[in-house]
Amino acid sequence: DVETLIKETDYNGFPVVVSRDSERLIGFAQRRELILAIKNARQRQEGIVSNSILYILYFTEEPPELPANSPHPLKLRRVLNLSPFTVTDHTPMETVVDIFRKLGLRQCLVTRSGRLLGIITKKDVLRHMAQMANQDPESIMF
Q: Which top-rank group of organisms is this from (predicted)?
């Protein structure tokens, strides 16, 4: 459930995959855009009220086929970045650091053959740089 994930974490965004089984990356959704889209849906869409549970969120052009008694689907494709910055699991850390510096990234997704393996955050990169220089991660600036 996206709303639970938003309430229980402080992540700035979330990778979106086809399914937990395939883990094939579709894109990346920013936390603030998801919150705003859900809030707007509650205000505008018929059948979604302040206490509705939004179980059916989708990022495709067409809504999934649902039983008649299902919660209303909420289309979130417009908040999805379909081409988030990614690196492969074989990308050297030196290259990753350089990419973060030059592009000012906050996070970068790690993939192998299109499958999501994880996320590298700016904090991860700073920690790595500090370890390499035997410094406190808080003292390193981009």
A: Eukaryota
